[in-house]
Amino acid sequence: MDEWYGTPTPAFVPSPPLAFQQFESSPGVRYLGGPEGLDHQRTYSPRGGKFIFNRVYRANKHGLGVQEQFGIFSSWLQSFGTNSIEGGLWVNPEPAGATYYPSLHLAAIGDPYHICNDVAVGGGLYGYVIGDRWLNMTQISNQVLTIPGSNIAFDMNQNPHEDENGIWAGFGWTYLNLEHPEDYKFWMSFVETDSYQGPINGYIPEHFNWVDPEKIANGDFQALLQRNGERFVTFATKGADANFGTGNESYITGVLKVSDDVFYAPMPNFPMKREREYLLAHAQNVSQTAIDEYSRLLTSGSLDQPLIPSTNLAFNSIYQSSHQSIKIYEQVGNEEYRYYVDPLYEVGFEGHLGFVDWDFTNKEQFPLLEASNGYAYIRKSPDKYEFGPNETDSYATHPSSYQTEIIAAPDTTVRAPKKVYQFLNYNERDTSHPDFANWDVTGKTRYETVLQSGATVTYVWFKFIEQPAVLSAMQNHPETYTETYLRTLQAHIETLHELVNKTSEPAPTDPKFINYRGAEQPDGEDFNLAKIDPAQVITPPEGFETGYVPVVINVHYPDEYSVNSKEIKSAPDAVCSNANWTDTFYPDIP
Questions:
Q1: Closest to 544 (Cα-Cα) out of 455, 440, 461, 431
Q2: How far is 102 from 9, CA to CA, in rounded Å?
Q3: What is the per-residue pLDDT across 475-486, written as a single tens digit (0 to 9) for each?
Q4: Structural domain includes residue 269
């Protein structure tokens, strides 16, 4: 860890300043907002999935600490009335560790934001440890580890290709029809990277049909049914609803009140080698018709083209609102002041490409562009902020909303925010506890790998249908996950692995699963695909090449950076114990 950068760093980054002053956040001051999100043509409804390519770049000037996070041009997919799949480049070091680049977060929510949702192959929301009956996330890749908390981290030592449009990763979600007895859809993530192309993780379909019993008891679920009518269906039963955008979120501390009228505050940290830096490309719709045919060919063993059929969607608008705008809130006594910040860049789009533009024509202004990229000195203005005509009343009627100006440093002090860097250990479970019986690894070989974040990861190999989440599916739904169906499911996963083994390769010269040639490219050239942290990319042992998956059983950080102990977990958190699991599933609720 480096106090200036706040993460491990590659050799090519500039050395930190020899002397700098660390500061605590000023009391009564907070930062909100981020860059504008880009919207694209609407996907079909219902649909089979969505893919997109994101540039991978260091999106924060300094590292983030505990209880801080932000997402960058992420995608939120929803079903009809419930379910959410959330994915994209994401910075949240407490669960994910300190990575130089944002990690690629790949997880889904069944009943929205219930704390026992499985978002980390056995880890619930907000760090809860869940009992076996709550398990739903499955490992699908036989070559890339799903790391609880971060999912996919990128190699910080790779060539960043800053003069060639940077490095990129394609990702997204779609379902496959794997002959589920109830005709439910198996949703899974896919990536297109330099290191690996293919599926990463996925969900037991019933995950999306579970409903919090409290919502049934208090009438919220019935109200949802009445409000949505026949539209209330899930990812598993019908698919995804229409989607048209990307979004950003930012929950960051570290605002310093330098003087009565000047703040030093976080700002988006964008690539800035050229006047136009591309950030987003090729939002893609996957239709149900296309993915159903793809699934039929796969399960019949006749699929010879792994590229998932998709339709490219052009960007067509920018999501702008005061809720999204960059701003600083200051509490003075009982009054809240809001200071809106207009950045020195412009986010835009053309066709299937999204970008950020810098104005390099004013040479005198250029040092300020560089200095404010990631952190900026912001001076209050006495002028009221002018809202657009469609602004919501909660913002437009606020009496103390003011403009600001980004200025040069008011003094010679070099500053950096002081952060607390502590990370969450994911601990092995005591399988003598009945709630953890599905994690039994007796007789299995343990493998270790050390990530660039400094975490030591231990994993073991399971036959796909013998991994913990599938054992839980057998436990929760014995009428569905019979020996007959499990043999069918195992055969389909082996076919998928054979396809990946035959297709995926380092430094591919052509798209494999997600197409990056279906629309115009940045400057007319193929992407430089990003490499995954090499410790996360593994080779199956002999005999485990198809039908077996690596499942992480613990992730441990160095003691000085651990927020919790590394002791074996003796029991799940009480609210997520097997005893508190319920069989309240839609549409089969009694």
A1: 461
A2: 13
A3: 999 999 999 999
A4: yes
* Ordered strands of the 447-450 beta sheet: 447-450, 456-463, 548-556
Token pair, residue 551, equals: 């499942």
Q: Would you say residue 149 has pLDDT above 90?
A: no
52 within 8 A of 280, measured Cβ to Cβ: yes
Q: At CA 308, angle to CA 302 and CA 309, rounded to 5?
A: 100
CB 195 within 8 A of CB 534: yes
Q: Which residues constitute the domain of residue 270?
A: 21-426+493-532
pLDDT at 288 over 90: yes
Three-class DSSP category at 170: strand
- Rounded Cα distance between 309 and 294, Å, is 8
Residue 449 lies in a domain: no
Cβ distance 338 to 402 under 8 Å?
Answer: yes
- The structure tokens listed for 343 are 């950045």
Cα–Cα distances (Å) from 469 to 135, 547, 550, 561, 587, in that order, read 5, 15, 13, 30, 21
Which of 105-136 are b and which e, b meaning 16 or more Cβ less than 10 Å from the residue's Cβ?
bbbbbbbeebebbbbbbbbbbebbbbbbbbbb
pLDDT at 257 over 80: yes
Pairwise CA distance, residues 107 & 75, whole Å: 11
User: 512-559: per-residue pLDDT in tens?
Assistant: 999 999 999 999 999 999 999 999 999 999 999 999 999 999 999 999
* Residue 589 domain-assigned (yes or no): no
- Cα four-point dihedral sign 125, 131, 134, 140: positive
Pair of tokens at residue 9: 């760093």
Evaluate whether 50 touches 93 at the Cβ level (below 8 Å). no
Number of other CB atoms surrounding residue 11 within 10 Å: 6
- Show Cβ contacts of residue 270 under 8 Å, excluding neighbours closer than 6 positions: 35, 57, 59, 277, 279, 345, 356, 373
* Calpha distance 428→263 (Å, rounded): 45
As beta bridge partners, residue 331 has 336
Residue 469 lies in a domain: no
- Identify the weakest region by mean pLDDT among 141-150, 391-400, 499-508: 391-400
**241, 197, 235, 208: which is closest to 137 by C-alpha?**
208
Per-residue pLDDT band at 336 (split at 50, 70, 90): very high
Q: Which residue has the higher pLDDT, 383 or 120?
A: 383
Closest C-alpha among 190, 206, 417 to residue 298: 190
Question: What's the gap between Cα 72 and its chain centre?
Answer: 9
Q: Which of 49-63, 199-213, 390-404 has the lowest mean pLDDT?
A: 390-404
- Cα–Cα distance between 202 and 108 in angstroms, integer? 9
Closest C-alpha to 53, from 537, 525, 521: 521
CA distance 243 to 265: 33
pLDDT at 59: 92
Based on DSSP, count helices (H) and strands (E) in the chain, helices before strands: 8, 28
Residue 158: Cβ within 10 Å count: 21
Number of domains in the chain: 1
